[in-house]
């Protein structure tokens, strides 16, 4: 019988092939898929996030841990669907129009997936219409990323367009990126701000009450 702690330990170390093998074994042995997800994968990504916050892990360690999580999720997803396990919520994420940076956005996307959210990653240089479309398709949170001070006004433009479309009240808007601050979030009427990827997960859960 596979110990779920063994899956978690290997995920934290970024051992993708081992995580995949252990998740396969756990599923075959009849372990509860919810337990594999929560105790094997989600708890481990929470540890990774915590280490990242404390500067014990850096971007490369987070990326290899996320890769290990994806390896496990590939095996687990069909079984979760059969068991009727739903994601926490659907999140749309993208780097705003005019901005081509994606490392921060990708980290947030990975940490969100690792915490059990369904992520609609819209990519870079994303116009307001794409966020609106994602909200119409069920996204409950929009995460807007900008690395340039010159593209920060695009964040407000997206919130304004959501308002015009009558969708603003239906969705929680979060912003982040190197030049972004809590003050700017307050100024443009965003629901939240996160200084890093792990905090973004905490903030999304707090905003949704999950």
Q: Can you describe this structure in just a few lines?
A:
The protein is α/β, with parallel strands linked by helices and 210 residues long.
Task: Walk me through this protein's architecture.
- By secondary structure, this protein is α/β, with parallel strands linked by helices.
- The chain folds into two domains: about 5-80, Orthogonal Bundle (Methyltransferase, Methionine Synthase (B12-binding Domains), Chain A, domain 1), CATH 1.10.1240; about 90-210, Cobalamin-binding domain (Rossmann fold, 3-Layer(aba) Sandwich), CATH 3.40.50.
- It is about 55% helix and about 10% strand.
- It has nine helices and five strands, in the order ααααβαβαβαβαβα.
- It has helices at about 5-10, 15-30, 35-55, 60-80, 105-115, 130-135, 155-165, 180-190, 195-210, and strands at about 90-95, 120, 140-145, 170-175, 190-195.
- It has a five-stranded parallel sheet, sandwiched between helices.
- Strand 1 (about 90-95), helix 5 (about 105-115) and strand 2 (about 120) form a beta-alpha-beta unit.
- Helix 2 packs parallel to helix 4 and helix 6 crosses helix 7 (about 155-165).
- The longest helix has 24 residues, at about 60-80.
- The model has no long low-confidence stretch (mean pLDDT about 95).
The structural domain count equals 2
Distance between the termini: 31 Å
Q: Determine Rg (CA atoms, Å).
A: 17 Å
Main CATH class of the largest domain: Alpha Beta
Topology-level CATH name of the largest domain = Rossmann fold
- Extended strand count: 5
Largest sheet, order of strands side by side?
2-1-3-4-5
**Major sheet:** 5 strands, parallel
What level of helicity do the residues show? 55-70%
Q: Strand percentage, roughly?
A: 5-15%
């Amino acid at each position: 019988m596979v110990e779920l702690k063994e899956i978690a330990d290997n995920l934290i170390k970024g051992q993708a092939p081992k995580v995949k093998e252990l998740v396969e074994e756990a599923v075959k042995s009849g372990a509860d898929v919810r337990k594999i997800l929560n105790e094997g994968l989600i708890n481990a990504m929470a540890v990774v996030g915590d280490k990242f916050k404390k500067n014990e892990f850096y971007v490369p360690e987070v990326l290899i841990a996320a890769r290990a999580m994806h390896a496990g999720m590939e095996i687990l997803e069909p079984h979760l669907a059969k068991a009727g396990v739903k994601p926490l919520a659907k999140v749309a994420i993208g780097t705003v129009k005019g901005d081509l940076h994606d490392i921060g956005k990708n980290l947030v996307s990975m940490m969100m997936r690792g915490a059990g959210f369904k992520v609609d990653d819209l990519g870079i240089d994303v116009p307001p219409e794409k966020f609106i479309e994602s909200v119409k398709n069920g996204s409950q949170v929009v995460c807007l990323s900008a690395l340039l001070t010159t593209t920060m006004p695009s964040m407000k433009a997206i919130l304004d367009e959501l308002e015009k479309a009558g969708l603003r009240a239906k969705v929680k808007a979060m912003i982040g990126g190197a030049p972004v601050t809590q003050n700017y979030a307050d100024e443009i009427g965003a629901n939240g701000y996160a200084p890093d990827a792990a905090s973004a997960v905490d903030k999304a859960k707090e905003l949704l009450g999950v």
